[in-house]
Amino acid sequence: MIPRLSPWRVVEEHQPAKWRVPACFVLFLVVLCNGTAMGQEVSFGFEPTSLSLSVTSSLLTTTGAFRFVDCVSDVESSFLEPEGFQGSVSLSLSPPLFLPDSESYSYDGTITYTAPGFAEPGFSDNGSVSILSECAPDSTLTVGVVMVADPEPLTSDVDRLDFEEVGPGDEVTASFRVFSGSTPISVTTGLGSVTPGVTSASGALIAFSYQVPTDAVDGQVVEGAISVTDSGGASLTIPVRITVERQQDLAELPGLTPRQRAVAGALDNACGSIRMIPESEWTAGQRDLFASCERVRDSGSPGSVLDGLAPEEVAAQGRSSVVTVRQQVGNVGERMQQLRGGLGGGFDVSRLALNVDGQMVPVALIAGALGGTAGDLADSGRLGVFINGSGVFGSRRGTSNETGLDYKSLGLTAGVDYRFTPNTVGGVALGLIRSDTDFKDDSGGVDVDGYSVSLYGMHYTPQQFHIDAILTLGRNEYDTVRTVFSGPDGQRAISKPKGNEVGLGISGGYDFVQGARTISLLAGIDYIRGRIDAFEERPSSPGTAGAGSLLAIERQTVESLTTELAVQMAYAYPWRAGVLLPTVRLGLENEHKGNSRSINARFVHDPTATRFSVTTDDPDRTYFNLGAGLSAQFTRGRSAFLFVETVEGKSGVSEQRVDLGFRMEF
After folding, report:
1. Residues 6+ apart with CB under 8 A from 522
2. Using alpha carbons only, what angle is made at residue 656 by residues 655 and 662, rounded to the nearest 5 degrees?
3. Bridge partner list, 470
4. From CA 626, how far away is CA 586, in angstroms rounded?
5. By three-state DSSP, how is residue 494 classified?
6. Per-residue pLDDT at 346
7. What is the C-alpha to C-alpha distance for residues 643 and 623, in angstroms, rounded to an integer?
8. Cα Rg of the chain (Å, integer)
9. More confident residue, 102 or 25
10. pLDDT value at 487 more than 80
11. Which of 182, 240, 441, 610 could make a disulfide contact with 232, Cβ separation 3.0–4.6 Å?
12. Whole-number Å distance between alpha carbons of 227 and 194
C-alpha cells in the first residue's frame, strides 16, 4: 500500500528508515497515480470553473456536470457550503470524495439545482460551490441559472384526416400545421406523401396527398397514419381514413330544369375526366372547372349555380339579329310608300323618326284635298335621295328557357333611287344599326353594332295596285356580357362574335279611294336568316372563380318567315296650310318558321369537349300590329307626321313603335 503523499514532496522522506538513501546518492523515484506520473505537473480544481444552467416553470430542477481534480494528500479535502444561491444546490462526486485508501484524484461531479417556488420566466440566480483541498486551495465552481418559458409542446392543428365520397382515381389532398419548441420536426407517412418531410419552423404547413387507385371499389376504406417527431423526442400520430364512395352525378340532383340538367351532364363528364388526371398536371382552367363542379354539389341551390353557367342569354343574339334586319327592311319600305304616293322626288328627310312602320298616303288623296294642287306637293324628278330613321322599344318576360330582357334598337338608313318609268322605281340604300339589350337582374346584356346594304324596287298604278320587293344584306357585331357568378368577386363571360344576315321582303296592296277617304288592303311576306359565328367566351376577371368555367358556343342560325294582312284607312282634312291626314292601321301577322332552336356549347377547358344544348322558346305564331297617326302635308314638298304602333298578342312581350318625322324636298 502506497501512503498518501503530496506529489510535491520528495518521496523518500516518508519511507521507513531502512529504506533511506545516503545523502551522497540522488535517488529519483516516480510514483504513478491513476495513470499520471507523480512528479508530473497536474492542474487541480474544477473543470470547467463555471456552469450556465436553465430551468422552466414546469421543470424547476436541473443538473450540470463538472470534473474535480484532487491530489493525494495528508490533508483531507471537503465540501464547503454553496454560497449566493436563492434556490437549493447539492453536489455529488464519483467515486465519492475521501474514499478510504483511494488512490484516485480525478472525480466526475454533478451539481443539482432546484429553483425557488416564486421563480417565474426571466428569473435568474447565481452562486458558487467550493471544495476545500490542499492542492486546490482557491478552487471554486461558479454557477448561473436562468428560468425560461416552457418549450412549445409538439402539437398539430388536426387530430385526424377523414376523406369521404372519394371516387376511384381521385387525388385527395389536405394541409395541416405542426408546432413544437424543439425543432427540427420530422413528418413521415406510409400512405401517400407529405411535403416537406423535415421542417425547422414551428407552425410549418405540411401538405398530404394520396392518389386513390383507379380500381378501388365502392365502399372500400383505406387507412393509414402520419407520424410527427420533434428533436426533443416527442411524437404524435395523425390517423388518416379514406372512404371510396361513388358521388351522385350532378345531373341526378333533384329539382333541376331541363336546361340545368343539360349543363350538369356536361359537368359530370368534364370533371370525371379531370379527376382521372393527376392533380399536379391540371391546368388552371381545369382546376377552376373542377371547383365549379364542387360548387354545384356543395350549394344549397344547385340550380342557381347551373343557371349561371348555362348560356341561355346567348339567345338574345338571335333575337337582336331578327330585329335589326326588320328595321332596315322597314326603313326602305317606308321610302317605297312615299314613292307610291308620288312624294319621292328631291331630298327626303321625312323619316328621321323613331319607327319602321308608317302609313301610306297616296298623292291623289292629298292633291284632291287641296283642290287638285298635287304638283305643289310633289317633285316630278326622276332621282331621289332619302334618309329614314327608326326605333323599336320593348321588353320580354323571362321563362324557363330564356332570360328576361329590355331592349331598344335605333336604325338609320340613307339611299338613292331612280324612277325608270312613271310607275317603276329602283334604288340602293345603306343602313346603320345600334341595338341595346339589357338582361333582367343586372345579369348582362347584348349590344349590337351593324351595317347593311339594301336593293329595292317597286311597280305601281296610282291609287290602285302596287307591288314592292326589298333585299337586305347585313353584318353585325354582338358585344355580349353574361353573369356566371354574381357577387363582389363575381365572374362575367365576355364575347364579341360577328355574324351575317339577309332579309327579303315582298308586299303588295290595293287602294280604294272615296273622295277624301282612302282604304288600303295590304299583304306582305318577309324572310330573315341570320348566322352568328362560333366564339369562345373570355373572363372579365382572370384568376378568380369561374374564369375556367366559360363556354365555347357553336355557330348559330336563326330564321323567321312572317306574313301580314293589314287594312289601313286615311282621311284628308284640308286646311289653310295644307292637309291633315289622320290614319289608323290594323295588321294580323303570322310567324311560319323560326321554331325553338338549340344553342350548342361546351366548356372550354373540358378535356372531353362534351357538347350540350340549351333550347330557346318557341316564337309566337299569331299577333296583331295596331297603329294610329297624324300627318300634315304642306306645299313645296314639306310634311311632318306622328305615328304610334303597338304589338299585341305576343306572350310575355311588350313592344311599342313610334314615328316622328319631317320631310323636305329640293
Report:
1. 360, 507, 508, 509, 564, 565, 566, 567, 568, 587
2. 150
3. 456, 505
4. 5
5. strand
6. 38
7. 19
8. 51
9. 102
10. no
11. 182
12. 10
